[in-house]
Amino acid sequence: MSSSSSLVLEMEIFQYIDVHQNDFIEDLKEWVAVESDSVQPDLRKEVIRMMALAADKLSALGATVNLVNLGSHQLPDGQDLPLPPVILGELGMDPQNPTVCFYGHVDVQPAKKEDGWKTDPYTLTEINGNLYGRGATDNKGPVLAWINAVETFRALKLAMPVNFKFVIEGMEEAGSLGLEKLLEEEKHCFFSDVDYIVISDNLWLSNKKPALTYGSRGNACFFVEVECGSKDLHSGTFGGIIHEPLTDLIALLDSLVDPTGRIQIPGIYDSVAALTEEERKLYESIEFDLEEHKNNSGVKKFLYGTKEEILLHLWRYPSLSIHGIEGAFHEPGIKTVIPAKVIGKFSIRQVPHMDLSVVKQQVVEHLEGVFSKRNSPNKLKVSMPLGAKPWLADVNDPVYKAARRAIKTVFGEEPDFIRDGSTIPVARMFQTITQKSVMMFPIGAADDGEHSQNEKISRHNYIEGTKVFAAFFLEISKLHQHLHETSNTETNN
Q1: Predicted pLDDT at 491
Q2: Rounded Cα–Cα distance for residues 288 and 146 (Å)
């Protein structure tokens, strides 16, 4: 396709999306009205209703839709609750086209008006160009934007530039129960012909500048338990003559990280990859307001003074945070007791190349070493109840190149290439199980307030997000075709 005909096609698509934007907002209003809270058991039927709505929407596009039954799960009180089905959808089987699989979720976090919402969280309300409602940005808005983009091609009777597959779930906010098992079962079947996987379930770093996410940190959670006996003791009777567990524990926790934020566990940085010049350049152009980030957090000073250092330590280097102590007295007032057993809780956000089993061993050896020097007769136990691995994609993959071009077309500027300091298990899960290229392609702005009161997506981001997905379909098709032709030429030579 020539560049001029490609431009005409884009204009036709974008014009249709602009003309039908109120229809797209009405669709979002209908979805937001469903209280599909996967956390609260009494709302499970609403999640199941939401899955049926999403399935109907895909069927209306002409997609083949399979609602896969995942069975049930048991609640702590012993009650069995049905898991919502997962949608596996397919549209198009042209062997000349690339196959792009989109993942999203249509369940939401709990929300009540009395929690501090300015509007009813389940009535999509437009105020000053912002669309307020639970799920507007996380994740009903982006899921619908992708569907709207596909719908635009069908409405204009245009040839589909890619084959589409859909994985839509209703338990993401409750840990994606059953999803990993389903992916394992389908990796040689549903995913066998998938070329690229796109996830749109996060936010830009900025309120105005688009971004593509290519990595996230993992998380290793630790319990360090110190016990001296079977019962709490009176500090007047035993204070000064025993090795107190809380004193031991505080010394252990204090040994983990220094005042500059550097982790003090020997060997913990050994596997962290050296920063390349190419990677450093990615950080220079990123739009990030240090003062705004500081004001949002409510703290007076960060550990680092430059944008680059802040982002490197948020995304690229490991960090250690201490979260709390179980067993210590924490009520108002004072209780002169020596607790018999205390458990310190901390986590290490690890980065690519750090091995979870090695990290666990390093932590255990370090804490046992510090503890042995105290000559305490107390019992020490270190455990790692939870470990999630980091995720990293290649920004030079065709899927990222196509998204970059689509963003330039729609927003008129290059995107920021960003990582996420937190953990995104679903990206790692898809990449590890399917062995396909995975990209995170957000359309929500940094101030959308996912999980918070007054969650929103702007009309601008929702509609331009629909356009950018449509432009991406065209770009990935062109790139894929070019790669295919290049590969054939090399083979013939």
Answers
A1: 53
A2: 27
